[in-house]
Amino acid sequence: RTDMIVNGSSSPAVVEQSHESIKHRDKTVPPQWIHNQTLSLTIRKHILKFLDAEKDISVLKGTLKPGDIIHYVFDRDSTMNISQNLYALLPRTSPLKGKHYRTCAIVGNSGILLNSGCGKEIDTHSFVIRCNLAPVQEYTHDVGTKTDLVTMNPSVIQRAFEDLVNDTWREKLLQRLHSLNGSILWIPAFMAKGGKERVEWVNELILKHHINVRTAYPSLRLLHAVRGYWLTNKVYIKRPTTGLLMYTLATRFCNRIYLYGFWPFPQGPDQNPVKYHYYDSLKYGYMSQASPHTMPLEFKALKVLHHQGALKLTVGPCD
Ligand code: CTP
Questions:
Q1: ipTM metric
Q2: Which pLDDT value is given to residue 216?
Q3: What is the pLDDT of residue 22?
Q4: Which of 125, 277, 293, 306 is an active site residue?
Q5: pTM (2 decimals)?
Q6: Best exposed site among 91, 110, 155, 181 by fewest CB in 10 Å?
């Protein structure tokens, strides 16, 4: 692994130190990651000028009613209706209301997690965020199991659950949803057209099977607000990825943020091949020019923040 992302002290219980204390460190020793509390607070404050995670994490029941028409954020000419089921699943209050966590893990889906042995460390964090219903059961040693919030782009239903074509796939999705066991299921339902039916299928399953999840549907302004924040900071992203969205939201309620599974490159720091996802065979072509994401650019920005101590990126094995 490169020396930029060193797991000097891989335990999230890293001791707070001031940056000054390492100024005269021996240059031959890889720098230990040290949390920069002041910078983290400044970033939180700046981001709050664009969005408030507590509010923007979900549209609330009081603000919509069944039958209301929504214009998709990225397809303004297309609309959807708020169904009875979606309305039933809107939270009454923000699932993050008044929440503060000492440490948070955001687990991206890169194959860099394979053989990392990071599962145990990930599970020690106070709040664990995962992306796109990524499986954990078969990968616990590398990714852990604790899940406090998991995202679900509607496209996941097609990609990972074969659009529920038969009972087997329906059952698979049901099992995954049951395993969430009280965590927040975050569904960007209003972003792009095309996902309406998939969102409705999931809503229906949750209600019909009394699945114990706390659903959240991000606000209409969230994506543009997040993009606005990063553009203002000269990070010229096209459309923020789920991972970047989660980091941006987490700054509001997490004191220290640890990122795992962020590595949008086919070769690892050791030049060995790295799978795009740790759990499927999706290829890197998927994020070519056609993709609305600019992952390597995002990664560069996250790397800078790692160096500054605002977040900790882990791309190597955990001790
Ligand atoms: N990620 C990464 N490197 C990879 C794969 C993923 O850094 N090789 C990070 C990205 O931040 C990504 C997150 O992990 O958003 C979750 O991965 P994935 O499910 O692939 O998310 P998206 O690509 O954002 O999903 P979509 O294309 O459906 O929006």
A1: 0.97
A2: 98
A3: 34
A4: 293
A5: 0.91
A6: 181
pLDDT of residue 29: 60
Q: How far apart are CA 254 and CA 119, in angstroms?
A: 20
Q: State yes or no: is 19 an active-site residue.
A: no
Residues 6 or more apart whose Cβ sits within 8 Å of residue 201: 157, 164
- Cα of 66 to ligand 1 centre, how many Å? 32
Residue nearest atom 25 in ligand 1 by C-alpha distance: 242
* CA dihedral of residues 92, 98, 101, 104 (deg, nearest 10): 40
Amino acid letter at 282? L
Contacts of 239 (CB under 8 A, 6+ apart): 74, 223, 227, 292, 293
Decide: 110 in ligand 1 pocket, CB within 6 A. Answer: yes
Q: Rounded to a whole number, what is the largest CA-CA distance in the chain?
A: 65
Ligand 1 pocket residue status of 109, Cβ below 6 Å: yes
Question: What pLDDT was estimated at residue 194?
Answer: 86
DSSP string for 54-86: HHHT---GGG--TT-EEE-SS-TT-EEE--HHH
CA distances from 206 to 86, 88, 214, 308 (A): 10, 11, 10, 42
Asked if 12 and 319 touch (Cβ cutoff 8 Å), the reply is no
Provide block-wise average pLDDT over 10 residues at a time, the chain (319 residues): 38 39 46 94 98 98 96 93 98 98 98 98 98 98 98 96 97 97 97 93 98 98 97 94 98 98 96 97 72 86 98 95
Going by C-alpha positions, the residue among 250, 227, 248, 215 that lies closest to residue 60 is 215
Q: CA–CA distance from 139 to each of 120, 132, 292 (Å)?
A: 11, 15, 29
- For residue 195 and ligand 1, the question of a CB distance below 6 A is answered with no
Nearest protein Cα to ligand 1, atom 23: 241
- Among 107, 112, 131, 249, say which to mutate for ligand 1: greatest number of ligand atoms within 8 Å of CB: 131
